[in-house]
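Hey L., structure's done. Input below.
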Amino acid sequence: DITQDILEELHPIIDFAPYTKLLTEQDEIGWKQILLGRYGIAWDRCQRRYLENKYQKSITGEPKWIRNVIRATWKYQKTRWLARNEELHGKGTGTNSSESTKLALLTRIKTLYSHESTLLVQDRFPFNIDIEDWEHKTGTAMQQWITRNTPFIKHALKIAKLQLKKNESDIRKFIPSAPILQHKTKSRKKAKQSKGKTKSKNITQFTQKQTQKQTRIQTPTPQQSRTKFPKKYKQATLLAFTTTITQQQTAQTDTQNT
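Output:
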């Protein structure tokens, strides 16, 4: 075994024969994998043998020792990784991007903005935001813009180069373009509120119209009733005449009785 030979040359006093299985197993896994916490199970067997020789009793149970070693390795590597990121990108707050990351994203945006004059006029809408305004944007907004527009800008550059190769010119470049307006979308909550207001407004208008109609209705005169409703007018007249005669007879009877 090459690893065992190297160790015996470095430490000729130590007997590595009990660790032959461990060395062979870790050779197959890879010694660099130890940095990721990937140990062979032979490590735990060697530790048990050491404890049995020390305390003169049998050690049984699950391989807890190697599990603790793996957890300690992961914790150590994570600490190193965080220290490396802080050294490279600066200390972040967890919610906002660090200054180094934002600077890197801003550099990429400026690189894409440098191709604006090369693109065709109708393909320049991704650059409606001034480059100076990007310095005040968040890292998330920068990354979203880069992810969304980079493929389109690359495709638009190919079209512009092809048109230039054909020696063609777009007439639209001589026409001043209107400013691009941002489309504002209403939220569902606001839309529901506006619908409710519209319904209540319509009901109010309907009630007002009905009231106006009722106020406009006038009681017809006898002459108008005789003209528009002759049958009803005759019935009403006959009823009134009969009622009057009955009242007169009743009054006379009461007078005679008294």
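The chain has nine helices and no strands. Residues 2-89 form one domain.

-- N.
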